[in-house]
Amino acid sequence: MLEITNLTRHKIYGRELIEVAQKVLKIVGSENLKEISLVFVDEKKIQEINKKYRRKNKPTDVLSFEGLNEVFICPQVVAKQARELGVSFESELMRVLVHGILHLIGHDHEKSAKEAEKMRKIEEKILRQD
Hints:
Elements: E1 2-6, H1 14-28, E2 36-40, H2 43-54, E3 62-65, E4 70-73, H3 75-85, H4 89-105, H5 113-128
Parallel strand pairs: 1-2, 2-4
Antiparallel strand pairs: 3-4
């Protein structure tokens, strides 16, 4: 279901990530996502990927590749965002994972303000449920 590869020095707890991924798929019901590859990379690597595929030469928190069912997450960027938002690293990591999986399903907040709001509401719904 969720294959996790950690190419960073950050400690990543897979069980929680798997639970969140399962919750996302249960709520949004995607038959196309039997397997998801989740890769944790450092700032340099995510910046390279972001530049190559999105022409944005900066590190980002998460990148998703819909056809490949791959999600790349940078724990360093997630940690910075968590500090800025005043939340725990773990809660921000879960939000970023949900966001990345929603992209795999086809949601795109960059299409329009309406789509961004729709995606944000789905994220909130998923993260609120226990």
